[in-house]
Amino acid sequence: MNHEQPGFDTLAVRAGTDRTAFGEHSEALFLTSSFVFSSAGQAAARFAGEEPGYVYSRYTNPTVTAFEQRLAALENAECCVATASGMAAILACVMGLMKAGERMVASRSLFGATTQLFNNFLARFGIETEYVALTDVAAWETAASVPGTRLLFVETPSNPLTEIADIAALSAIARRTGTLLIVDNCFCSPALQRPLALGADIVIHSATKYLDGQGRVLGGAVLGKRDLVFDPLTAFLRNAGPTLSPFNAWVILKGLETLKLRMEAQSRSALALAGWLERHPRVRRVHYPGLASHPQHDLALRQQSLGGAILSFEVDGGRIAAWRVVDACKVISITANLGDTKSTITHPASTTHGRVAAAARQAAGIGEGLLRIAVGLEDVSDLVGDLERGLGQ
Ligand SMILES: *Cc1c(COP(=O)(O)O)cnc(C)c1O
């Protein structure tokens, strides 16, 4: 046992705690937009960065700092920079680390807004993105070798098919090609997967999902080596403004305390539900990394400690049958969000992936019979009851 470095569970409840003179036990919430100085000289020194201390909450705020320190401890990262949302975290990486004329390589299966950001906005400012199949390591290598490539961007497991990217293999490609690997660790969180330990350069989070874990607030974060993320990203965030609000930071900070408990319980339920679905005669296929039938089950077990809380499955009978399952749900919420203690169900082809052309959607494996469930903390028997009603016996 290493007594120098506290364990994950201890860090989750204690890292980043910086008590005020009042001696409060629970973390304080600093709802203040600015901070006062004792003199004109101190104001000048703070603005010049010659004296440490708070100035204005677009720059830094003690509650936001506490959240950053705790998440950095959990990802075992040198530095964490908080952002207003997961999308702001992705934008901050691009704005802080890239310039016009450079290119990015990204996996084809990405969160919808990430694809929209890359294709509809970054492309306008001269940053092109090449998409490759998530699991095709050779294709990543070829694309990353094209001169001008700066960032490799991947989500693993992917949404909604839970494909697994080989983080260690992609990290090796990033090193060989002089590019930086960014992993969106939203689906696993540091409770199940630590991409920096596998060689990734940067981890980004939508803290809106499992880090808060209770569906309350939006937030995001970027983690990595200090020289890589701190200066370039804070320079952008402080001047552009998508910083995390202290209130949201406080909510997510408290969410981190139960992160591992929730992730483990939700993963256990997801595995049970996936097993039940796999045996159901009306279900053609179940996508869940924790199942032995998942094509990358071994890789998943190597780089994540559990399968995670998200699964998808294909029902016989296309959209009509899939919508019947959704509409029969009394416990599971019909919403496209994920990462909540409340289970959610969505029909990707008509919601999250509804804007993708039907042919491209089919090619990506997102058929009309596909449903995605983000498993929460309810009794599995109640979730089974919901699905049984919609699927039929
Ligand atoms: C939700 C999500 C995002 C975007 O996060 P927001 O907090 O909604 O901005 C990015 N990546 C993944 C994988 C997500 O699920």
Biggest β-sheet strands, sense, barrel: 7 strands, mixed
CATH architecture of the largest domain: 3-Layer(aba) Sandwich
User: Could you name the ranges where pLDDT drops below 50 across 5 or more consecutive residues?
Assistant: none
Query: Which structural class matches the secondary elements?
Result: alpha/beta
What is the global morphology? globular
> What is the assigned CATH homologous superfamily of the largest domain?
Type I PLP-dependent aspartate aminotransferase-like (Major domain)
Bound molecules: pyridoxal-5'-phosphate
- Measured on Cα atoms, how large is the radius of gyration? 22 Å
Any idea how many domains? 2
Distance between the termini: 51 Å
Number of E strands? 12
Overall average residue pLDDT: 95
Task: Give an overview of the whole structure.
It is a single chain. The protein has 15 helices and twelve strands. It has helices spanning 8-14, 40-47, 62-75, 86-97, 112-121, 137-144, 167-177, 189-192, 226-240, 246-257, 259-279, 297-303, 318-327, 358-363, 380-391, and strands spanning 79-83, 103-107, 128-132, 149-155, 180-184, 202-206, 220-224, 283-287, 310-315, 333-334, 344-346, 370-374. With 393 residues, it is an alpha/beta fold. It has two domains: 8-258, 3-Layer(aba) Sandwich (Aspartate Aminotransferase, domain 2); 259-391, Aspartate Aminotransferase, domain 1. It is globular, with a radius of gyration of 22 Å. Helix 1 (8-14) packs antiparallel against helix 3, helix 3 (62-75) packs parallel to helix 10 and helix 4 (86-97) packs across helix 9. The chain binds pyridoxal-5'-phosphate. Pyridoxal-5'-phosphate binds at residues 85-87, 111, 113-114, 155, 159, 184, 186, 206, 208-209, 218, 220.
